[in-house]
Predict the structure.
Amino acid sequence: MAELRLENVSKVYDKNIIAVQDITFNVNDREFVVLLGPSGCGKTTILRLIAGLEEVTSGKIFIDNVCVNNISPDKRDIAMVFQNYALYPHMTVYENMAFGLKVRKLPESEIKQHVLQAAEILGLKELLNRKPRQLSGGQRQRVALGRAIVRNPKLFLFDEPLSNLDAKLRVQMRGELSRLHKTLNATIVYVTHDQIEAMTLGEKVVVINNGRIQQISDPLTLYRKPANKFVAGFIGTPPMNFIKGIIKKEENTIKFISPDITFSLNHVFEKFKDQEVIIGIRPHDFTDAAGIEFKIKVEIVEPLGEDTYIYGKLNNLIIQAKVPSARKPGSGEILILKVPEEKIYLFDAHTENALR
Ligand SMILES: Nc1ncnc2c1ncn2[C@@H]1O[C@H](COP(=O)(O)OP(=O)(O)OP(=O)(O)O)[C@@H](O)[C@H]1O
Ligand SMILES: [Mg+2]
C-alpha cells in the first residue's frame, strides 16, 4: 500500500533559481505515473523532493496520508533509480544488489532471498557472479533496477532509467518495465523526456514545462485533447504544425486570417470572432478527401517505408505533413492537401490555452 500526494510543492534553489512551482498531483496505490517534460523542466527535482534528498521550499508531500516533509530519506521507504546510476565496478552483480541490504544489516539469509528473487524477476540469475564490465548496457540497467527491487520499498522513483540505452534496447526494457510493474504490484513514479516512453508506460502522465504542471491525464487524452499549445506540440511525432492568425466575421462568413493562409470556418467558430488564435494541425491529419485546402510547395521528402512525410512551404510557413499513401511527391511539386475542420486544434494566441 503506497499512495503519494504532492500539494502545491515549490522548490527554489539558492540564487533564486525556481526549479518547480506549485506542483500538485496524486499517485494512487500501484499506479504507474510518468512525469514528462523537456530537459531542465524540474523532473529530477520533483523526484529528489519526494525521496527527501532536497527540502521543499513550500508545499507538502504525503505518503499514505502522512506528511513526510520532516521525515528523513531513509525513513520514507522509497527506492530511487538515478538518472546517472553507477554500479560498483569491483563488485559482482550479486554484491551490487546485496549492498544496500548489507548496509542495513539484514541477516545474510534474508539478503540472499531478496537478491535471488529480484534476479529471477529481472532475468539476472545466470549473471550473478559477473562484474559490471562483463555485462551489456541492458543487463547493467537491470542490475540498477535490481538494487531498488531488493529493498521491496513502498514506492519506486525512476529517473530516466533507460536514457543511456540504444533505441532497440530501450524498447525492450520498456516492455520489461511494464511487466515488472505488474509483477511487483508497485507504485511507481517514472521520469522521462521521451513522449513515446511516457505514452507507452504511463497510466497517468504529468506533463511539466518550466517547473509547472501543464496537464495531467491518461496518454490518449493528452494526444486528443491537449490543454495548451505546449502539450499539443510536445506530444505526437512529427509535432503539430501551428499557424497564428485571427478569427473574423466578414459578410456573414467566419474566417481564419493569417499572413500565409486564409480560409472560412463553420459558424461554431463565431464565438471566437476578433480573437487572436493559433491553429494546430497534426501532420497525420492531412488527407486527399474533403476539408480545408492547404497549397504546399514540397521541399523535403522523407519516405519512411509505410508512410511518407514532407516538409513544405505554405507561402512563408514551413509545414510538415504526412502524405496520403498513394502519392509520391517530388521536391518542388505543389501539393493540395486537405484537413477536415474537426481536426483543427485551436489555441488562444496569448494564453496559449486550448479553446475547444
Ligand atoms: N542543486 C541545484 N542548484 C541550483 N539549481 C539547480 C540545482 N539542481 C537543478 N537546478 C536547476 O533547476 C531546474 C530543474 O532541474 P532538474 O534537474 O530538476 O531538471 P530535469 O527536468 O530533471 O532535467 P533533465 O531532463 O535535463 O534531467 C534547472 O533549471 C536546473 O538548472
Ligand atoms: Mg533530470
In short: The mean pLDDT is 92. The first strand starts at residue 4 and ends at 13.
